[in-house]
């Protein structure tokens, strides 16, 4: 009879633990695309978007961080609140200052809105590869031609005003 009580208690404890384990939920994150690859030129801005979805059963705050190269890669907005099942687009802005291949991650962390919630947060990393080539010289040559032509036109305008002014003075005498 003593063994029957022990077995009964063990079965009850096991049942409670199994029931509790089956009712534990965590916050979730869904992101499309799962990775980002961008090719651009030095000082040439590039833009991509991520679609972030909250698949969990409660609202959550989502924070976004760029792990490296914060001076060249930005995520806008830095955080959002998503209701259960809601999704939003997040902008990734890239303005590289030098050539190279830059590999980093965008970290996304979900945390509960309620301070009393016992649900653990979630996090994931979206790999991003930014390939930057040198800026084409044709663009720079065109800019210098515009500056040169502006200077020539400015000199011609000033010379024309001076000639007209001199003729008016000469005709008055």
Task: Please characterize this protein's 3D structure.
A five-stranded mixed beta sheet has the order 2-9-8-4-6, with no helix packed on it. Strands 1-3-7-5 form a four-stranded antiparallel beta sheet, with no helix packed on it. It has helices at residues 2-22, 137-172, and strands at 30-32, 36-41, 46-53, 60-66, 73-76, 79-82, 87-94, 100-112, 122-133. It is an alpha+beta fold and 173 residues long. The protein has two helices and nine strands; from the N terminus they run αβββββββββα. The chain has a domain at 27-133: Immunoglobulins (Immunoglobulin-like), CATH 2.60.40.10. 13% of the residues are buried. Helix content is 33%, strand content 38%.
Radius of gyration: 32 Å
| Overall geometric form | elongated
In the CATH hierarchy, the third-tier topology of one domain is known as Immunoglobulin-like
Oligomer: single chain
Mean pLDDT over the full residue set: 83
Total helices: the number is: 2
List key phrases describing it:
five-stranded mixed β-sheet; four-stranded antiparallel β-sheet; elongated; 2 helices; alpha+beta; about 170 residues; Immunoglobulin-like
